[in-house]
Amino acid sequence: GLSQYSSDPRTEWDLSAYSTREQVLEAVRNLRYKGGNTFTGLALTHVLEQNLKPDAGARLEAEKLVILLTDGKSQDDANLAAQTLKNLGIEIFAIGVKNADEAELRQVASEPLELTVYNVLDFPLLSSLVSKLTRVLCTRIKERSHKEPADTPVNTGPQLSPTDLKISAVTSKSMHLAWSPPLRPPKKYRVVYYPSKGGTPKEVVLEGAVSSLQLSNLTSHTEYLVSVIPVYDTAVGDGLRGVTSTLPLSSPRSLRVSELSHNSLRLSWKAAQGATHYLVLCSAAPDGAED
């Protein structure tokens, strides 16, 4: 399976999409590069929630491996997301190219780091890693498959997943989230929200007994993506997702001009709700002198 990421992760194909080596290589050849920012934490969360699910072809009895390929330092908390995966028994290999942060790669990767962290100076040099990485991956799968299986699968179902996300009381700078908790209350919830057109994701961590949250200090007239992710000691439930736009800021109305003289005029208007100041600009028409 493969996902690309920038500020918004995108699944290119699931684990169940192809069944032969030739099909996978053809898919790689047809892959279109996705430019943009480097939100590695968001990408790792996407892989956990979307790509390592039975619906996407993940088999509960199979070993779970994630290979992260990045050429930059993450613009969000990659370590926190990586720790969630590692706590669930998912092994992470981190491969850096060019401007990747070596310290971050070592934080994100699983132990032992001498087998799971790689860094090369440029993309063509990645080919030098293929044979070694292939041997290491195969060896790790064999080693891990002889261990006892985990008591709790990574995913999910209604027992571990909240439902019915409702977004209400939307204003120009806030909104209220509420959801129905799963049958088995989680240890905590991770609520992640960010503008759909790109922006730094923000995260709030709630106790598992809480099932609502007020988001504040948002940007007006902006579409936000919201995820509510239940986290257990040994599993992560399916996340809820929602999309809502904040309202535009209110505008002044009914502009009136009075008390005209040869060098002055009086302006009046109906107030804009919530405004603390007004900026008044005037210039001579049509070509205008200075404002």
From TrEMBL:
<dbReference type="Pfam" id="PF00041">
    <property type="entry name" value="fn3"/>
</dbReference>
<dbReference type="InterPro" id="IPR002035">
    <property type="entry name" value="VWF_A"/>
</dbReference>
<dbReference type="Pfam" id="PF00092">
    <property type="entry name" value="VWA"/>
</dbReference>
<dbReference type="InterPro" id="IPR003961">
    <property type="entry name" value="FN3_dom"/>
</dbReference>
<dbReference type="InterPro" id="IPR036116">
    <property type="entry name" value="FN3_sf"/>
</dbReference>
<feature type="domain" description="Fibronectin type-III">
    <location>
        <begin position="161"/>
        <end position="250"/>
    </location>
</feature>
<keyword id="KW-0964">Secreted</keyword>
<dbReference type="InterPro" id="IPR013783">
    <property type="entry name" value="Ig-like_fold"/>
</dbReference>
<feature type="domain" description="VWFA">
    <location>
        <begin position="1"/>
        <end position="133"/>
    </location>
</feature>
<keyword id="KW-0272">Extracellular matrix</keyword>
<protein>
    <submittedName>
        <fullName>COKA1 protein</fullName>
    </submittedName>
</protein>
<dbReference type="InterPro" id="IPR036465">
    <property type="entry name" value="vWFA_dom_sf"/>
</dbReference>
<dbReference type="InterPro" id="IPR050525">
    <property type="entry name" value="ECM_Assembly_Org"/>
</dbReference>
